[in-house]
Amino acid sequence: MLSPFDARRSHQETQYVGRFAPSPSGPLHLGSLVAALGSYLRARQMDGKWLLRIEDIDPPREQANADELIKETLVRHGLLWDEDVIYQHNSHERYEQALKYLRVNGHCYFCQCTRKQRLANPKGQPCACAQLALSPQGSATVLRNTVAVHEIDDLALGRVSFEEQSKDDFILRRKDGLYAYQLAVVVDDIASGVTEVVRGADILPATAYQLALYNLFAQPAPAYVHLPLVMGDNGQKLSKQNHAPPLNNELASSNLCTALETLGLRVPSHLNNAPVTDILDFAVHNWSVALTADNPHAFDNRIDA
Q1: d(CA 167, CA 148)
Q2: How many whole angstroms separate alpha carbon 34 and alpha carbon 235?
Q3: Is 275 a member of any domain?
Q4: Domain named Glutamyl/glutaminyl-tRNA synthetase class Ib catalytic: which ranges (predicted)?
Q5: Inside any domain, residue 304
Q6: What are phi and psi of 192, to 5 degrees?
Q7: Residue 115 lies in a domain
Q8: What angle separates helix 181-192 from helix 92-104, to the nearest 10 degrees?
Q9: Dist. CA 102–CA 213, nearest whole Å
């Protein structure tokens, strides 16, 4: 079966395309803003597109109206996206085509293990289900990971080596029928022509799995920039799961200045209360990935791969 995607093409031949892809499980917090701001600045500096994708493939975790709150917060902070907002719930047919391609070419198996059983399985070894002809009913669809990626060159972190977990098989569609993040993010990034992914360092371990899918789909992988995490007073990274406080849109200018400091760029005092457009204009002309990479404290709390 032929690949469900267009013929392989070089990113060198295409326009820069970046994206911000939040899940609608709650409003944006400061950590979200750092990721959004970094990806926005890269796209504007490269004279490219900046897309907004709402990753709504996990309804049990979603919060009513969160997508509208996210869009409002981005607008209030001057982070205006290009083109129409992409919603992952509209991509199910594309995910199914990608799954069919992987199944037909022998890259998948069905698994009925619990999460606890999968975690107990030896690293880099498929579970017993891989040898069984299980029914897809009540089973997860799992990638047979034969193209494990061991390291990448990250534009902020430099050379990153992945642990043995990069060799693990991983779920593409859950037992409940919902598509898994690893599959959806790769399929959608390919469909949108994303050339560079800028996101928080907490997603770094997943990069190895996603690169395995790029290889199997015979598509060029994007460049990666993993940004520092924002930590709370309790030492945990700010996240919706940890009940991070939502951004106050009335303090958008102050929020941007704080986010830029996390990225290694100090905003001049005369801009502290300036309109967000002025702060963003300053950032576009003065921030670089190198500033973040050279910040001695930026990655003190980085989650290693």
Answers
A1: 5
A2: 17
A3: yes
A4: 18-243
A5: no
A6: -85, -5
A7: yes
A8: 110
A9: 9
- Please state the pTM of the whole predicted model: 0.90
Q: Which two tokens stand for residue 262?
A: 């996390």
Q: How far apart are CA 53 and CA 72, in angstroms?
A: 14
Count CA atoms closer than 13 A to 207's CA, side-chain side: 28
* Residue 4 within a domain: no
Q: How far is CA 213 from CA 17, 92, 155, 170, 230, in A?
A: 19, 17, 21, 11, 29
b/e code 20-47 from CB counts within 10 Å (16+ = b): bbbbbbbbbbbbbbbbbbbbbbbbbeee
CA-based torsion, 287, 289, 294, 300: positive or negative: positive
> Could you list the pLDDT tens digit for every one of the 305 residues in the chain?
667 776 656 665 679 999 999 999 999 999 999 999 999 999 999 999 999 999 999 999 999 999 999 999 999 999 999 999 999 999 999 999 999 999 999 999 999 998 888 888 887 778 888 888 888 888 999 999 988 788 899 999 999 988 766 788 999 999 999 999 999 999 999 999 999 999 999 999 899 999 999 999 999 999 999 998 886 555 445 455 555 789 999 999 999 999 999 999 999 999 988 999 999 999 999 999 999 987 655 554 443 34
The whole-angstrom separation of Cα 131 and Cα 144 is 11
Q: Which domain holds residue 221?
A: 14-294
SS (H, E, C) 188-256: HHHHHCCCEEEEEHHHCCHHHHHHHHHHHCCCCCCEEEEECCCECCCCCECCCCCCCCCCCHHHHHHHH
Residue 38: CATH number of its domain: 3.40.50.620
